[in-house]
Amino acid sequence: VPTISFRDMVIQKREDDLVVASFGRSFYVLDDISFLREIDEDLLKDEATLFGLRDADLFVPRRNGRAKGTSIGGDFYAGENPEFGAVFTYYVNQKYETLKAKRKKKESKLNKELRDIDFPGWDALEDERNEDACTYWLIIEDQSGKVHKRIKSPTSKGFHRVAWDLRSASSLPVHKGVKLDNFGAKGFLVSPGTYSGRLVKMENGKLTNLSEKVTFNVNTLYQPTIPAVANEEKEAFYDDYLSVVGDRNELQFKFNQAKKIASALEVSLTNATQSNDTYLVLMDSINKSLVKFEQEIVGFKTKNQVGEKNAPTLNDRIWGAGAPTFGSMHGPTETARQSLALAKKIILELDTELNTIDSLINTVVKDLEKLGAPAIHGVD
User: Fold this and answer.
1) Is 152 exposed, middle or buried (0-12, 13-18, 19+ CB in 10 A)?
2) Which of 133, 28, 30 minimizes the C-alpha distance to 89?
3) Backbone dihedral region of 301: left (phi > 0), alpha (psi from -120 to 50 degrees) or beta?
4) Which of 194, 191, 196, 195 is CA-nearest to residue 235?
5) What DSSP string runs through 15-81?
């Protein structure tokens, strides 16, 4: 806000927003000022204070160029909208300082006073290096106590606002080197209902509650023209979808491992001291099977490079099940259900194929010593 006089001020009563107009420097809006009414001197003495919040409207934000990080061109002005979802406000009473920051502060004072600075000792420096920084987390739960999201939050002194996008956390398996797709990484929109948030601190391996729970409602912004699928049915589909994506990721992980081992085997067989023609032919068969396996997941790479259509792949079926559901409040359509069923069928077929490939790879691995070939590492 510029340093200038403000001539007009009004409170938008429905949203409880403060709107002010400056003298020639535009309008400014402070969203949801309800927390200001809770502030008193005693409250701000606590280490941290989480204030109440207004109910959250549940809808799918439109991406038409006006969203944050997008553009509709320089000829169109678009002000920044309020954060989507449930917006929490909290106050931190004091600045958190690490062991290193405290030492530097002390040394800076001694330096200004032209006094000697003692060496802190190797143990102290090692403690600084291994110190876990203090972190704040906003925990979102429903009425049953199920945690839907943990949001890492700022720890600096002052007022902070953190928005929850009304989506649950991902429950997909985590594999090193495998990135979750957009649907799985974010999770689906939650159902309307009553939720709560609380602020906790993690410091030196200890979790401390910094606030009581604050409750709020998630309400549907508008009623759809087509009746939505029942919430219980949505939840069952979401769980089924995430299970399928998890199985796909597991297949992808195993496939990547098989490719690495096959590559190492080729190098090892090249350095074999005994005749290995049969095994070289077997490796050629393994590599062709791996190429075919990958094509069934992502399609032909040559077609993908020029945008040519592939026959529907496993990833296409998963996208067809998740995309319309992820970006809609209606719930799974019949097409989405069919896509998910086809994805399950493909996964079963691919799992059988991969087991066959693994069996062939293990056959070669077991005979490396007999062939006088170097051993390879990373194989169970």
Assistant:
1) exposed
2) 30
3) alpha
4) 191
5) TTEEEEEESSS-EEEE--GGGGGG--TTGGGSSEEEPP-PPEEE-----SS-STT--S-TTS--PPP
Is pTM beyond 0.70? Reply is yes
Would you state the structure tokens that stand for residue 236, as one six-digit string? 């069952």
Is there a contact between 287 and 293 (Cβ–Cβ < 8 Å)? no
Classify residue 169 by its DSSP letter.
P
pLDDT digits (tens, 9 = 90+) for 310-321: 889 999 999 999
**324 CB-near residues (< 8 Å, 6+ apart):** 333, 335, 336
One-letter identity of residue 19: V
Which tokens hold the place of 173? Answer: 């398996």
CA nearest 190: which of 157, 164, 166, 171? 166
Query: Of all helices (H) and strands (E), which one includes residue 153?
Result: strand 147-153
Q: Rounded to a whole number, what is the distance in angstroms from the first to the last CA of the chain?
A: 62
| Residue-by-residue DSSP string for 174-227 | --TT-PPPHHHHH-PBPPSEEEEEEEEEEETTEEEE-S--EEEEEEESS--SSP
What sign does the CA torsion over 11, 17, 20, 26 have? negative
- Among 78-82, 151-155, 191-195, 239-243, the range scoring the smallest mean pLDDT is 78-82
Give the Cα separation of 30 and 260 in Å (integer): 55
- Contacts of 270-278 with C-beta under 8 Å, sequence gap 24+, read 271/373, 271/374, 272/368, 272/371, 272/372, 272/373, 273/371, 273/372, 273/373, 274/370, 274/371, 274/372, 276/371, 276/373
| C-alpha angle 374-377-380 in degrees, rounded to nearest 5 | 120
The label of the residue with tokens 């439109």 reads 62
Contacting residues for 362 by C-beta, under 8 A, at least 6 apart: none
Q: Shortest CA distance to 147 belongs to which of 187, 97, 118, 119?
A: 187
User: What is the distance of C-alpha 340 from the center of its chain?
Assistant: 23
Residue-wise pLDDT for 270-279, tens only, equals 888 888 788 8
